[in-house]
Structures are given as structure tokens and as C-alpha cells.
Amino acid sequence: MSHNYPCFLCAFLLTMFTYKAEAALSLDRTRIVFNQGNKAVSLRVTNQNNKSPYLAQSWIEDASGKKINMPLVSLPPIQRIEAGSETKVRLQFSEMPVGLPTDKESLFYFYFREIPPKTNKPNSVMLAVESKLKVFYRPESIVVDKMQEILPGLENITLDKNKEKYEINNVTPYYLTVVEARESQSAKPISFESVMYSPKSRGFIPDNVSTTGNKISLVFVTDYGEQRSLNFLCENTHCHIHDIGKIAPKKNAHN
Known about the structure:
The protein is mostly beta strands. It folds into two domains: 25-141, Immunoglobulins (Immunoglobulin-like, Sandwich), CATH 2.60.40; 154-246, Immunoglobulins (Immunoglobulin-like, Sandwich). It has one helix at 5-15, and strands at residues 18-20, 25-27, 31-35, 40-47, 54-62, 67-68, 72-75, 78-81, 86-93, 106-115, 124-126, 129-138, 158-162, 165-170, 176-182, 190-197, 201-204, 215-221, 227-235, 238-246. The strands form four sheets. It has an eight-stranded antiparallel β-sheet with strand order 16-15-18-19-20-13-14-17, with no helix packed on it. Strands 3, 5, 6, 8, 10 and 12 form a six-stranded mixed β-sheet that branches. Strands 2-4-9-7 form a four-stranded antiparallel β-sheet, with no helix packed on it. Strand 19 and strand 20 (238-246) form a beta hairpin. The longest helix is centred in the N-terminal third of the chain and has 11 residues, at 5-15. The protein starts with a helix and ends in a 9-residue tail after the last strand. Belongs to the periplasmic pilus chaperone family. Residues 1-23 form the signal peptide. One of its GO terms (biological process) is cell wall organization. This is P pilus assembly protein, chaperone PapD.
């Protein structure tokens, strides 16, 4: 006697419905830098659907994933965006940022959820699409000029070969997001889930990166969502940066 009826029934029901989760609302950036002294940061939101209005919901979470409304808040928390139109979401401090470090970045997360209109199509379900952007708050002591493409101090980052792993020493006051590695700048990428290293901290590079060579390149994400490579030369177990290179742009990089 077969015991697969529940599985068969689930599969059958799934074929009866059409699920649609294509993003209609787009943001004008993939990460947010909030400098001390700025009253607010505005993000442009575009409804790319020329036929239907959407609701946009937004909120802020701290680095631990707790939803907050102080010291940073997203306004308005919910709004209607008409078909084919643009609007803005503002991030601003609801109170003075007391207690945040004055010598390094602080991390928050901006969440943005689009809520589609109800559909009249039978057996069709519209799913809400949600985006998560990193928000880096920079105290006055480490604010970077907009004309500066590379964060100061990146050239001082080092690697150490620790048994069969690379250990990175992020000596800068900035968060560093690494999205892939290469055995040299022109070599085939070694893919892994992106890793973010806190300011003035040490951490390991993912296990699938070999430590056998004397060169290694780490691809990181800039303030503007672009990708650059930290190109290291290694002597024995210690590696230092000899240059910072450019990487061909990739679409839909949200790191």
C-alpha cells in the first residue's frame, strides 16, 4: 500500500497555483552610508510597473536583527507608490546618536518590502518582495570625502596563513565585505557566501580558498556597490597588499 498520498497531494496543489514574486520597486543604491552631521539620507524609490500601484514598507534593525525606531528611523514607514512613479524614503536620526563608537563604523540594516496589489487572476498568488541593505554610520573622525574612491587604510590590511586558512586582519575603522577570492587578480573566481569583517577585527577567509600559493586576491564591495580587489603578495605565512585593482561590474550585487 502506498504512503505517498500526502506528497502527491501537495505536488498537485502546487501545480494549481501560480506564484509571482518579481520586484516592481527599485532602490537607487545597494548600501547606505550615513555620515555624522548629516540630518538625513534620502533613497529614491521607483515603481517600474506602469500599470499597478504598490505599497512600500520600510524599517530599521540594529546589527543584532532587532527592529528599532531610535536612534535611526525610516520615514514614512509605509506609503503608496503609483504606477510608473518615483518617491523617496528618508533615513534620519530620531535622537542624537549617543553611545555609538566615535572611532569606527556602526552597523544597521534597512529593510524595504514591496506589497503588490491584489490580483483578480484565479489560482494566482502575489508574493511580497523584501530587500535588506546595510547602513554604515560613520562618526566625524572617519568621514570619507565623496571624491575618494577607496576607503583610507585599506592598503594596511594583512593576511596570515593559519594552518590551512587565511586569517584577515582588518585594521581599518570600516566594515569590509568580501564576496569572492582569486589565486591572482586575473584567475578564475573562487565563490563563497559573502563575508563581512568588522572594523579593527580579525577573521578567517572561507575554507575553500587554498593557501598554497604566494598570491591571493580578495574581491570587496565599495561604498558605491562596485567591486574592487585587494591583491596580496605572501612571504612565508604573512601577506601584504601590493595594489588595489578594479573588477568588471556585476549585476544585482547586494552585499
